[in-house]
Amino acid sequence: MDLQQAQQELLSRLHLLYDDREAATITDWVMEKITGWKKIDRIIHKTFPLSEDGLELFQRYTRELEKHRPVQYVLQEAWFAGMKFYVDERVLIPRPETEELVEWVVEEAASHKQQAILPGGSTILDVGTGSGCIAIALKRQLSDAHVYACDLSGQALVIAEGNAAANRANIHFRQLDFLDMGEWATLPPVQILVSNPPYIPIREKASMAPHVVNFEPHLALFVEDQDPLIFYRALADFAKKKLLPGGQVFAEIHEGLGMQVVELFQEADFHPIILKKDMQGKDRMVKATR
Length: 290
Fold this sequence. Notes:
290 residues; alpha/beta; Rossmann fold; 2 domains; two-stranded antiparallel ribbon; elongated
């Protein structure tokens, strides 16, 4: 089987599971992983035969993808903020809208540094770090910051620590239950609090794509229907205790709960509060200033 035949076969199988654009993107990722060649090189060498090892990988990846396993888990890698992260079913797959949250934090931190509102060596806490993508991206872009990251899952932290080492980012990791106020004593006062917490009500599970529901960790995705804002309330309570004056909370949110999150921070005496849309035009993130 040559490269062109392999690509066409994988693409035809993925068309049964994904739309044309996503099928093409996944096919491109898989073929680059197998061959080590960019798209232009594969076009030039389209009749080049797959090696025995390459064919074995192609068949294994195809089987896993046909079971709806996300391509990032199949390849055990995801790109975020220009960096490669190891991922598997122990952590959420980093998403573009979370990159937008990171970009917002970096922009605000740079602006405040220029205005001397926040000191250069600010302390940042990433709550529910998962793969570590937010904390690591912030440390790489705000090199003088002291970055802490916490997660309930010890297995997630193993991955986050590996990603931090691979991307040369010095992060202080903590395993704790952020909903337990008694554990906050192990965390420092901070100037920036950032989080992409669980925010999807369990009732929405039935309408979600199989590759998300069947593979990504439910601990990092879902909250009880009767209290979907539980983590935002904890973030606000923590911020009232440990966010330094002039500090800010940045959080990714459910697109349908934006105003409820804003009202929660208003009731906790934060001002100003900004609700921001992502590139898809959906309410996706909130910034609240203490």
